[in-house]
Amino acid sequence: MPRVRISDVAAAAGVSISTVSLVMNDRDARIPLETQERVRAAAAATGYTPNSVARGLRMQTTRTIGLVSDTIATTPYAGRMLAGAQDVAREHGHLVILVDTGDDAEVERDAIRALADHQIDALIYACMWHRVVDAPDHLPARTVFLDCRPVGGGHPAVVPDDRAGGATAVRELVAAGHRRIAFVDVDEPNAPIASALRLEGYMEALREAGIEPDPELHVYGATTTAKGGRSATDLLLDLPESRRPTALFCFNDRMAAGAYVAARHRGLEIPRDLSIIGFDDQQLVAAELDPPLTTVALPHYEMGRWATEVALGVRTPDDPGAVHLMECPIIRRDSVSPPPAAGRDPGRRRT
């Protein structure tokens, strides 16, 4: 079916093409109201819709936002982040154009160039997890970094406050009465930035509580998977009873799931014998464990909203060149309780 043209509307309404253009773009209040109504009625009757690309070029806006990411669109972590960005875009009459580069530098370079050629109104440069990145060349002026921050700054950026989130997790365990609290960390060759930041939060909360950090209670898994969490937790449960932890803060929820397995292979009950807190609030993991896992949530949706609001200019950051740290809230479920009563061996196998 051929596209209805503005000339078709003009003919149906009995007015000039310029009059239709002015009415459809709300650009001239001097046109009599009766004529305006006739033009809009003719447009509705003929099925005419304005060419949004042409209108955007005239108004120097395309009502589009580019979102370039590494592997974000294919991971379970990203859905809420994209939802936050899309919700804000829709609220302000914009469309998000998503390009997943697969972490390929050449694909990324081509994508940024293509989006710039399409005259997008703003760009969001996103990563799957908190990283420090080299800002790509030829970024549009209105570029915001999401879940990453550029080396040397220069653009607004939003990342989770991993340090404060780590402190929040340990404070929750301290409040439950625990004093021997372990950190189940990751020792990958390229450990994520979040590892060091969450460790800083762990240490900060221990110092606040007057607890001397014990190096034996900082253990590492080879990966951020359940397998890595299980092997690291086994090291803790092999310690003599007097040095064994009563609570674990795990780097992420998958490692916490591995800690559950290690504990149960020792005949331990969570949280009666061992309290566990994770990080991420990962979908289909944290809430599905038995018992459901208390964890610290990554604020993906809120970060997606913040980045898009800043990109569109509807939010002005306090310092446009600084990194905004988004709060990571505690999600309380059923994996934390007071430490086991004195005299009970939390490392003994039940028969």
From TrEMBL:
The keyword Transcription regulation applies. One of its GO terms (molecular function) is DNA-binding transcription factor activity. Residues 4-59 form the HTH lacI-type domain. SMART domains: HTH_LACI (SM00354). SUPFAM superfamilies: lambda repressor-like DNA-binding domains, Periplasmic binding protein-like I. Keywords: DNA-binding, Repressor, Transcription, Transcription regulation. Pfam families: LacI, Peripla_BP_3. This is LacI family DNA-binding transcriptional regulator.
